[in-house]
Amino acid sequence: MAGGGDPLRALLRAANALLQQRRYRAALAAIKGFRNGAVYGAKIRAPHALVMTFLFKSGSLREKLKSIAQATLTHSRNLAYFVFTYKGLLAAQTRLQGKKIPFHSFLAACIGGWLVFGDNNPINSQLIMYLLSRILFALARLAVQKGYIPQPRQDPFPLVVALVWGTVLWLFEYHRDTLQPSLQSSMTYLYEDSEVWHDLSDFLVYNKRTDSK
Length: 213
Hints:
By secondary structure, the protein is an all-alpha fold.
């Protein structure tokens, strides 16, 4: 038994030695980025898909579970491909130019985003909207830090909140088709379904009656 373990220990030592080689660091970082992208994508998408599917989607249990699995796989795969592509292109640019500059990150991410997330589907759309909202906040903060716009005298967050909620409810009421489908479903549940009931059962217990009474 002890002898059978020697090749495995030798293989592990060789793998660990390889991981310490600085000349392979960029390639290894891309591989680990692929791994981390896959794991993170699954962690983020699985619970979200689980909740949204069972809250808003109809169909059999098998169909719901299949939908959750497909959404999780797509998000996990795309994020893994993107991180691998981004880090690979970043390393290639740094090697070609001899040093890393800020534009390298922008260009590598642009190419990776185009290749991996360019397909207009619900999962990619949700991810881009998630990023876009945070980018707008970050750019506003950066503009203040760089002195392009003056530091607000008061916290602008309440005004931003008012404008965001005012805009989204106006769009929902009068231009609903412009909103993303899952947001439409959420807002229909909150603002339209709350106006319909027949008795105490679908007033407090259920959202909608399942019988034909």
